[in-house]
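Internal ticket - ligand job 977, FE2/S2 (inorganic) cluster:
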Amino acid sequence: MQAIADKQGVKRYLVDVTVNGDDYSVVVKANTLLVNLLRDEIDLTGTKKGCELGDCGSCTVLLDGKPVDACLVLALEADGCDVITIEGVAQHGELDKLQRSFADNAAIQCGYCTPGMILSAKALLTRNPKPTEPEVRAAISGNLCRCTGYVNIVKAVMAAASGEVTA
Amino acid sequence: MSQPTNAAGQPQNDPKLPPREYTHPGLPEPENKDYAVIGKSKPKIDAREKVTGQARYTADLKFPNMLYGKILTSPYAHARILSIDTSEAEKLPGVKAVITHKDVPTLKYGISPARWDENIFCSETVKFVGDKVAAVACIDEETCYKALKAIKVDYEVLPAVLDPLHAMDEDAPQIHPEYPRNNNTEIHQDFGDVDAAFKQADYVRTDFFVGNRTYQAPLEPHTATSIWQDGKLTVYSSTQSPHYFQYYIAREFGLPMGDVRVIKTYVGGGFGGKLEPTGLEFAGAALSKITGRPVKMFYDRAEMFAHNRGRHRQYMKLTTGVDKEGMILGVHADFIMDGGAYTSLGIASAYYAGAMLTLTYEFDNYRFDMHRVYTNLPACGAQRGHGAPQPRYAFEAHLDNIAKDLGIDPIEIRLKNARRPNTVTPNDYVVNSCEMVACLEKARDVSGWRDKKGHLPPGRGIGIATGSFVSGAGYPIYRTDLPQASAMIKVGEDGTAATLYTGATDIGQGSDTILCQMAAEAMGYTYEQMKIVAADTETTPHDFGAYASRQTLMSGAAVKQAGEEVKTQLLETAGQMLDFPPEQLEVRLGKIFAKDNPDTILTTFEDVARTFFVRKGPLTGRGSYAPPKLGGKFKGAPVGTSPAYSFAAQVSEVEIDQETGEVAVLDVWDVHDCGQVINPALLHAQVHGALYMGMGEAIWEEVRFDKNGKIANPTLGEYRLPTALDMPRVHSSLVPSYEPAGPWGVKEVGEGATLPTMGCFRNAIFDAMGVSVNSLPLTPEKVWSALREKRKADGEEVWDPMTCECYLED
Ligand code: FES
Ligand code: FES
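stdout (structure tokens):
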């Protein structure tokens, strides 16, 4: 990885990362977090920060297909990786069936947990297209929601999986 | 992420518990046939923005030349500031301003006008760990943290008051010199003749309960970006009330309100914690004024916990006299509240605590005593349900104790005493619609109470509790004759869209959606053609914002009036165009027809609106709402008044692990009287969320402190926000109800469902095990200890972990 040092001798690194299908080369510090690279450097603010400690899951993105807390991943670790954020879930303006299902099932209140929830659910449905309700609950158990009691979120994921919602 | 552990690091599935089969919640409600737009589960107006990541919250906004700001807070619970040296911080590259109390207005502020006791920065003493001392503005966040570290503050540590029960002791340290004995609020209310009622009673019982200090913990941290330019200030903020922010910021800086613009962005939840200024707006405004640049300020998660304004911990003594049949004759509530270091909304919380106890059951004799004391802990304020949920837990537990003593079924004693419609409480609240009896009966039936009560297997129990809440506070927080709410509607020039302008504040609960439904209903238009501009003090008309469950009724009333004004003008023009008496025309979903011939469409809303514009200019409607004069004449009478009250009953079924004391909640049934429903899907979602919060507070959540007054668990994981794996099966249903004081008969729902939850869990545990847990949260440890005491009392041999020798090393 290319590195250059600034006036104070702090090193910067060039990270090559694919986000939602687009290639970016971004200069970061060794301690830059993936969530800040996404939010501050490429202005994808759909990825939220609720704790920056790995507790809430608001910052969930898919890193090479796996859901991760972007506040616990260094930007350097994402070098050469494929990242999907909430902005990359709808295709050509068409909502994904999970997005539609969240809207149809009143699974959104303040919406702050929604991007992370949708990405955790998307990862689940990719590896397990017909999950049981306990499997859905387990898959989103790292995503906190203070508004919905998870009731309609679970319902929305189940509906998307059962094909009740078509994208 | 998505690891098989929950937020507290516990395994996701307890193998000892039976696997849960979750059913889907919400009994189907009949679709309302009479209305075209309301009564229907329309999708949220902002759903697309929120599911695609387009919705911008305050922290997502960037402005040219923007700086980042942070506040330096006190590491001590109580200390005198001897000196502050900012010189090293100022020298750091990238630091643009460092400010202390010397650089900002010294006017005291607070959200309760009767006790303004906060300053932007402390000058003499700091009063809790987290009190504000200084602030910096820098080119980036990292520099902010370096600058905060470089500020040197010399403190003389003072003895602190950490135990509210000793805050009023004669020798306790004094926190605010103006309030001797740390006495922040003292209430003594007496209605009827409680002593005579107790004398007359066949049975009088006293119980004592303790609540917990909980925190709203909205998922979005507090953020504010302030831009001071040419003597005018704009603040983008994560707020529940742009109006109160505007009022208090203008007052603090001596600006006319017209020079302060507060704009709500998308807000990631509030639950009461974002109602009052957070200090970020004041510090940010001062920093922006000095630097001439936009300044973005935010709290991290630990700072949010320290700023707090969450639920007060209450110490509650209740005495009730009943006759042989279980009819309540008189009640005495004697409470102490830990207020923390400042007043916040605590005066209202203190009144609410006792005042709301008179609502769900009818009795004439009531005495309420309260002391809200200052302590050197973070200040408490208004959290969902305000001061009412803990006293409600206490009263419902107390009532079950009485029912058990008298051998009466818990539902029977509640039905006997349940409030009826068109009654007045002893503290002069006028109750119009009230379906308390129907709620109890339906809760009994849908939960299968009769089959379960007394027939459940060992370790299983069922409990019930009630609750009631205001649909908007009868009076605003500061004294003013402004109406509670106002609204404007502007129909586009070709009639194909209309915009609602309202100061009402959507913080996730969905007010933007239901107000657009209401506007469309009143205008005879479609929801899909509505747009909304809300909660911006410059572009939208005045409204007090999101608190006290006020917007559906109050903002809704203003919106309805505005919509009807549009409709009247539209039909007048239609009448001229059609040569038809306008009073015989009707408009529904954009179609205009004669009232007596709804099947023949004569013209459309769009055509007529366009003609109106060509002839007369913009087609607009205006509305405003002020409640009638409410309440009695005694001190504190306005608090708790409301045009209407919601009522609810909840039943829960629990299973207790008798070895560990762990409580598994299996099912919760909520039955609500919330008047006419505008959007059933969003309404049930409010119940789910309120119940979730009540459940968290009932079983897990508690802010804890170390011996120096520092928060021991300032993270979402350690504070223990419940996860998706913790939720029981939730069944939310309604009873038919119509409230004459609300537009289309509406009442509140968002807070009321938090009230019964803690009590119904405690009562279910009481039913399961015969033990009473008299403090919140109802942790496994407390249930286990209570079980142990009971076994000891029953003469069983119990193992004592403290003396067991098997753990001693040999
Ligand atoms: S912000 Fe990353 S888990 Fe909370
Ligand atoms: S919708 Fe608000 S946190 Fe989930």
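Auto-summary: Chain B has 19 helices and 28 strands. The CA atoms of residues 265 and 619 of chain B lie 28 Å apart.
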